[in-house]
Amino acid sequence: MDKKDTKYIDLNTTLSAVGKAVFVNFYYDFKNASLSDHEIAEKLLRENPNAKSDNQNFRIPRARHIFAEGNQLDALKIIIDSPRVVSKAREKARLILAEELARAQAFQECVDERGFIGDLNKSIVYTEQREFEYNNNPEPAKETRLTQTSQYQRSKKVSSNALLKAGFLCEVNSEHPVFVRKNSNENYTEPHHLVPLFAQKDFPNVNLDREQNIVSLCSHCHNLLHYGADIDGVLYKLYMDRKDLLQLIGIEISYEDLKKYYFCLLYTSPSPRD
């Protein structure tokens, strides 16, 4: 691939060489590193009525160059703002952009949560407070720290209260094995926001960082929700156990809508070893 080629001068030029509608319609194919150029070429020829065999040798490397440079979201924005692109392709670009931004926010939440739990573990040393009772009055949403992906504020106190309320046991099954923390005599469980914090945009007037929305989980169940292929058994139980409490503080959500957030988490979560 000759980077001196004039088709690589700027994003607009490269995108035009690919074809804006083609870039949208085959977006996830170009993005999928497991597909070879040959496999994509065959699919383009099969599904794109205007495709010509020779053109794919130029089109595919340029499309993948956009991804390699991290410019795919900017490319989608260009397509959305291009009046000469057919409306169907522009609308598809809007949907893909929304999906990609949601995945980015979900990924950031996983990263933030991991760092937060690490800090929380250092602060949990309970000696006096042995009980906690819910305050079921709705609270307004917290301010969001604006970064490339939104960063949501978490309270160590709120998460600690949620773990305390659960008796430092796993709320999926209190018989699940746990171990005692190094810095206290409390069991090690992890706080997890049942309705993820990146869903805050869908609940603009409600604070999601509440004890009612935080469940205490053993490491296995927590990792299952983030990385497991089959989460229904765990997620549905937690939802049914918390549904009424969530409603009391103004969080109205169906199980089907809750699962949609976890679809984002499943395909964006960093490796447990990261």
Uncertain stretches = 146-150, 267-274
Q: In angstroms, what is the radius of gyration?
A: 23 Å
Please state the oligomeric state of the protein chains shown. single chain
Which strand order spans the largest sheet, edge to edge or round the barrel?
A: 1-2
Approximately what portion of the residues adopt beta-strand conformation?
under 5%
Measured between the Cα atoms of the first and last residue, the distance is 33 Å
Task: Describe the largest sheet.
Answer: 2 strands, antiparallel
Provide a count of the helices. Answer: 11
Helix-strand pattern, N to C? HHHHHHHEEHEEHHH
What share of residues is helical?
40-55%
Q: What's the structural domain tally?
A: 2
Average residue pLDDT: 84
The gross shape turns out to be elongated
Helix vs. strand class: mainly alpha
**Total E-strand runs:** 4
Task: List strands and helices in order, with pairings.
Blueprint (H helix, E strand, L loop, with lengths): L10 H8 L1 H6 L1 H5 L5 H11 L8 H13 L3 H9 L6 H37 L20 E2 L5 E2 L3 H10 L24 E4 L20 E4 L1 H9 L4 H17 L6 H12 L8
Antiparallel strand pairs: 1-2, 3-4
Helix pairs in contact: 1-5, 4-5, 6-7
Characterization of this structure:
There is one protein chain. The chain is mainly alpha-helical and 274 residues long. It has two domains: 6-85, no CATH class; 110-266, no CATH class. Helices cover 50% and strands 4% of the residues. The protein is built from eleven helices and four strands; from the N terminus they run αααααααββαββααα. The chain has helices at residues 11-18, 20-25, 27-31, 37-47, 56-68, 72-80, 87-123, 156-165, 219-227, 232-248, 255-266, and strands at residues 144-145, 151-152, 190-193, 214-217. It has a two-stranded antiparallel sheet. A two-stranded antiparallel sheet has the order 3-4. Strand 1 (144-145) and strand 2 (151-152) form a beta hairpin. Helix 1 runs antiparallel to helix 5 (56-68) and helix 6 crosses helix 7. The longest helix is centred in the middle third of the chain and has 37 residues, at 87-123. It is elongated. The model is unreliable at 146-150 and 267-274 (pLDDT under 50).
